[in-house]
Amino acid sequence: MTGKTLYDKIWDAHRVAEDANGETILYIDLHLIHEVTTPQAFAGLRAAGRPVRRPDRTLAVADHNVPTINQAAGTGAVADDEARLQLQTLERNVAEAGIEFFPMGDVRNGIVHVVGPEQGRSQPGMTIVCGDSHTSTHGAFGALAHGIGTSEVEHVLATQTLRQRKAKNMRVWFDGEPAPGVGAKDFALALIGLIGTGGGTGSVIEYAGPAIEALSMEGRMTLCNMTIEAGAKAGLIAPDAKAFDYMRGRPAAPKGAAWEAAMTYWSSLFSDPDAAFDREIHIDTAALSPLVTWGTSPEDVVPVSGNVPDPADAPNAARATQIQRALDYMGLTGGQPISEARIDRVFIGSCTNSRIEDLRAAADVARGRKVAAHVSAMVVPGSGLVRDQAEAEGLDQILIAAGFDWREPGCSMCLGMNPDKLVPGERCASTSNRNFEGRQGPGGRTHLMSPAMAAAAAIAGHMIDMRDLPLVDGVA
Amino acid sequence: MKPFTRLDARAAPLDIANVDTDQIIPARYLKTVERTGLGKGLFAAMRYEADGTPKPDFVLNQPDYASAGVLIAGDNFGCGSSREHAPWALLDFGIRCVISTSFADIFYNNCFNNGLLPIVLPEDEVRSLMDEARGGNHVFSIDLEAKTVTLPSGRVVSFNLDAGRQEKLVKGLDAIGETLQHVSSIDDFEAQRRLTQPWVAA
Ligand code: SF4
User: Fold this and answer.
1) B33-82 per-position pLDDT tens digit
2) Does residue B113 sit in the same domain as residue B156?
3) Which residue's CA is the nearest one to ligand 1's atom 2?
4) Co-location of B166 and B178 in the same domain
């Protein structure tokens, strides 16, 4: 008998029943919810007279819609009528159901995928779902975590289970030792550039290899977060000492004897050496340089020192049309060096890159330097706790002195649902995860990159390898 | 959920690959607590000028396709966010079936929970359907029980769909109601969990 993959093990441990129609009823350990994808689910429950089965296995935050200034004033002060109604609807729903909730302005509130791990609610071996596709983030802890739609949110609230079909097993090895300045965001962009945004469809991706072992938990979260952009159902990494160290002492982490028991179980969460994968891919991280996107899909990846593609070189007419369409939208010319494109805005934030390590990386680049005069740059920490820690470390002062705008936590310009958005034609260096047309505001142009690269773009006024920024006096 | 058995409707070609959910329904339309009324935001960036006037070139703005019930799209339709507002917007506009070579996983699942039929066909078939949809008569007939699409030319194309998903749509099943029939298994699972993983189940 062949061994099991990590995904197989978690799947098997959560099977409740097999339905006659071929679906498995899978138990859900943790359900994260937020204001945008839940109002219709609670309305559905109410209409059917169904209670929330496990409010204690559910955690709510307010993140997608919230303004990133003046949060202490509360939801009543949110200017946008629709956003305010959605936020207040969530407050009412969670109060009625008895679900733990970190309201806007609470220091524990923030982006749902930052808060879950930070509180120790996301744990190895769990099944975790949320009405948000970047739930794959929590796979960094060796959990099976993925996004669901609102009907499924309602299903989980009512039953604490989800109807699922097993996905395929795929493994991506990150070998070698990356050059300084190359990290998790580049790993993610390299993978998506290689296999495309549909490359992972129908699969759960396990990340493995020496470069993954060397990544911090923050880096692993960045990589797992972007897995959905490769089309995969979920991304995960076998938990190791780093994962356990991150968990230890968090508010919701097991304590005492329960911690010991949990550790014993968590230590069994890895793919058996003889486990079979449907597909395996190797990426040599030593060969990577800092990457950025040029187009309107996360697969449109180019090294920052490279040129945007020329439709004339496309393999076929359909691809040429696609490239031309993206170039037109992005206001770029085929074949031009990507570094020539002038940046108007910079966004450092989102569930991909708004954790303490990301802010440190941005501050390291910003220290002693100035944001270019024509650039407006904002930093939005992933949670109130991240913001506090950054302030305790003095990162806010470094960033503010360099000319960055220091904000309160939320999704912000990742999706432009709150007032933080691009105006048509503006070009943004962004640490978020999606460069789709209009993602950061109608007509906005997004280039994805790492926090250090986004900070470097803010200073240079165009995309640049941060290793090429001129040195600042007194800084190594 | 409304059962889906047959559909006779005009089909509109949208020959673009990787149509993501931000294109299907931009984020600014998600600030709603309702499932209905999203049709106005469907494909907003492609459909409207900045001042809100319809773009005459966009397929669903053309008189022949304004009442389309079927959409024929390029590869990897529905990639991106998990927003169920995407199928809600399509349905609210009047589209009950999308045909493509492939769909993103979450979008595909969301369709079945809303009575929207996603049909996967090989690339050459999708091409020929696009061509027929561009022709003079655009009415396609979809028979979900027989799993066939009858084209304006009279040609019949079969598609695959697993029996469970087909039944869900044909009967308009309430997934929660179905799952709650297994409630004793869920109770047992939780009881077991309290013994084996008390730190999770507590
Ligand atoms: S930061 Fe962006 S991607 Fe992450 S949860 Fe918020 S909107 Fe979604």
Assistant:
1) 999 999 999 999 999 998 999 999 999 999 999 999 999 999 999 999 98
2) yes
3) A414
4) no
Closest alpha carbon to A459 in A351, A371, A336 = A371
**Encoding tokens for residue B100?**
């493509």
**Model confidence at A476, in pLDDT bands (50, 70, 90)?**
very low
Q: Is residue B135 part of a domain?
A: yes
Query: Residue A418: which of B31, B83, B32 has the closest Cα?
Result: B31
Under the phi-then-psi rule, with left for phi > 0, alpha for psi from -120 to 50, and beta for the rest, what region is B19? beta
Give yes or no for a contact between A238 and A201, defined as CB atoms under 8 angstroms apart.
Answer: no
When divided into structural domains, chain B yields a total of: 2
Query: A61 to chain B, minimum CA–CA distance in Å?
Result: 16
Are B58 and B93 contained in the same domain? Answer: yes
**ipTM, two decimals:** 0.93
The answer to the question of residue B193 being in a domain is yes
Rounded Cα distance between A8 and A125, Å, is 11
CA–centroid distance, residue A134 to ligand 1 (Å): 7
B1 assigned to some structural domain: no
CATH classification of the domain holding B113: 3.20.19.10
SS3 content of chain B, % helix, strand, coil (to 5): 40, 20, 40
Task: Name every chain B residue with its beta carbon within 8 A of the beta carbon of A437.
Answer: 22-23, 45
Nearest CA to A27 out of A100, A141, A128 is that of A128
Which residues, at least 6 apart from A78, have a Cβ–Cβ distance to it below 8 Å? A65, A66, A67, A84, A87
Tell me what pLDDT residue B138 has.
83
Residue B177 lies in a domain: yes
**Looking at the partner chain, which of A80, A146, A261 has a beta carbon nearest the beta carbon of B199?**
A261
| Short-list B145, B138, B140, B40, CA closest to B94 | B40
Whole-model pTM: value is 0.95
- DSSP character for A72? G
The answer on B192 and B107 residing in a single domain is no
Q: Alpha-carbon distance A89 to A80, whole Å?
A: 14
Question: In terms of residue numbers, what domain contains B131?
Answer: 6-171
- Residues from chain B that touch A27, judged by Cβ atoms under 8 A, are 186, 189-190, 193
Reference B105, options B77, B125, B147; nearest CA is: B77
| B181 and B152 co-located in one domain | no
Residue A158: list chain B partners with CB under 8 A: 176, 179-180
Same domain, B30 and B87: yes
Of A81, A291, A276, which is closest to residue A183 (Cα–Cα)? A291
Report pLDDT for A93: 97
Q: Is A43 on the interface with B (CB under 8 A)?
A: yes
